[in-house]
Design brief:
- The chain has 343 residues and is an alpha+beta fold.
- 19% of the residues lie in helices and 39% in strands.
- Strand 1 (21-28) and strand 2 (37-46) form a beta hairpin.
- The chain is globular, with a radius of gyration of 22 Å.
Length: 343
Amino acid sequence: MIQNHKLNKQLELTSEQTSPLFRIMWIQNKEEPHRRHFENNICAFHIGNGYILSVAHNLKTEATIFKSIDNGIYLTDIFPYLNSEQAHLFESCYPLELGNQKRYANITNPNDYQSIINLLKQINFDTRWTTMMDRKICNPHLIIQFKNNLFYNKPELATYFNSITYFVESSIERHTFLVEVALVEAFYNEDIALYKIINTPQELIDAMPSLEVDYSLLDDNQENYYCLQSSPTSEIGKLLNKAQIDGFTEHFSIFQERIGGNYNLEGLRYLIKGYFRFGSSGAPYILYDSNTNSFKVNAIQSEACPIQLSINNQRDGNFQYVNAIASPLQIIQERLEKHLNKI
């Protein structure tokens, strides 16, 4: 009987209607569906009451290029640093739309595309995702997809969505709902980021599955430890697979950050043995609690851990990623609870 209960809970974690696993993507031109653009895809999961956890290492990476920009930002933060030739290039690639005083990317020549990238780096224009959020160039959203056109099979919730926050993706036979989130705090050293759902009715938040947090620091003898991540060949599907805590590390790694300066990824981490998909950063490691018949989140997938193997008696270039590095939630417990316990 216990095994049946556990199996049912396992299957719920991979079902689109009951899984707490989501994706966060940054959307540019959200209000204009024909110009809408999605980037910076990262795994995330709901821990209740609209709070979302993911990793932090994607926040300070730089966008390749922006799809639009307010003319005011262009005039104050870009134009003064361009010579006449550079200004002509930028304005031809980003023509001004007088109606809303925005400049939209219209780059047809691949050489111009690369020239714009080089130009923005040359003048040190900040395209990190955190800055792009602050400048309202883009905003992070949860991407929630179903096979039918109902939000968690609840017809009464349909009125909360419109043509901007809901659309059909016929190529993948899915209905996509967008739920806006805001960054609450980024714990960069620990590689964890906390978001909160905003501008969303409580009824929608209440309908979304979540995981309870388990702050325990676990030993390396766990039999009911799993990774919940995207399926191996698609970000649309979900996969629950066994994982094993293989050891512990006092981690240290330097995150290269061109504009704001490098920072360290450091502190206690689990060394995890088991399958993890490239692109699974932000996925939860979860523990089955037989007493409550529930799964609880204990850690977050942070980095790959390269183990060098000898292949054909050669080691050069043979970094086989057979281990992962995960951040236990115990390392941010006090700081996280301050947010979660706010009334």
